[in-house]
Amino acid sequence: MQRDCVSPTKLENRIKKIVHKPFFKIALFSTTSMTVLGSVVIAPSLPALQSHFQNIAGIDFLSKLVLTLPALFVMLFSPLSGYLLDRYGRIKFLFPAMAIWSLSGFSGFFLDNIYLILVSRAIFGIATAFVMTGATALVGDYYLGEDRQKALGLQGFATAVGSAVFISLGGYLSSIDWRYPFLAYLLGIAIAIFAYTKLFEPHRKKTKKTHKEVEGSNQKFNFLMFLPVYLLVFFCMVAYYISPTQIPFFIVHNLGKNGDIVGISMSASSIAYGVFSLFYNRFRNIWSIYGIYALGLFLMGTCFLLLYVFHNYLIVMVSLMFLGAGGGLLIVNSSSYLLSIAPEMQRAKALGFFASAIFLGQFFSPLMTQPIVDRMSILGLFLIFTCLLYMLGLFFIFKSRMKKNFRKLQS
User: Fold this and answer.
1) Is the overall model pTM greater than 0.85, yes or no?
2) Cβ distance 213 to 205 under 8 Å?
3) What is the dihedral of CA 104, 352, 137, 38, to 10 degrees?
4) What domains can you pick out in the chain, each with its CATH number?
5) Residue range 294-335, pLDDT digits in tens
6) What is the phi-psi region of residue 58: left when phi exceeds 0, alpha when psi lies from -120 to 50, beta otherwise?
7) Terminal C-alpha separation, the chain
């Protein structure tokens, strides 16, 4: 009863104090980092997994599907998760999904059938849809304005740091046995327990809605308004996922390195992703949305240009840092823009389709890139994506200048 008597202003001030506490942020951003950990941690074990199941027909494709199949199910179930989270709340779906995420991910440790592993990865993908949409929606609910931009930067940083640590660990474990990286998913249980003690259902203002909120909740979801963001994110993830799906084979087969070296290489990308995500708010204070898109695309394009021209391990490390830096800027920039234009009562739904675009890109990455590798070699793949990313970056420079000229004419 006492809680109901607290005025909205006092309640909002109390919530603001809670969400800025360090342990609260650790719980929230650890939850968001789980979704990226889900894919990258097993990337270094793919060559060894492929060798283990070498007698299975089509194992070249199936081994990559172990990494990317969850993305297909995230794509399919993220819109549904967004609808349910908007309608019934975030927390009641988030914690069960985290438990399922952890157990289904861990099951790959003891399964010795490639098709059962793929089934477990499908279940894992469904759980990931709810975790990713729910956790990102909570970031949008807990923080506003500049605080939200900072929170999204911290989210990207936490995701990248977790990714760097666990992909390095995954690389080391895969050098012992390809099954061992699946043990890392048990960390999700510990994160879920910790998050359960800190996170709470955000205040949704159910009793007294403003006219704008009622209108927003009844308004039909305008998918076309968000479509350009979804398409851009899809393409960026196709390019970004060349790193875990193709570059491990490039390092092992072309450069003759071991699986533990693959993990260290992937972690370089994650560290750069985190650093550039962390400083996103500073980039945003200087450059426009279009300007940051152009910068991110040029950074990613430079990665593939370096890989195409130079063929040594040091250059691979440097190029993957360019890839991570560009990817971090592009994803945080897109999520920040999306949260700024999405109505409050449709936020989770918009983020659900955003998650679908991300994981659809991850799923289609090997489907789109492997035929190019088969026909033109992996170097041909690097050249094609260099050209595509640079051309798209030039397009956003043009858009940015057009917008500036339009503003000058108006003034």
Assistant:
1) no
2) yes
3) 30
4) 17-201+227-410 (1.20.1250.20)
5) 999 999 999 999 999 988 888 899 999 999 999 989 998 998
6) left
7) 54
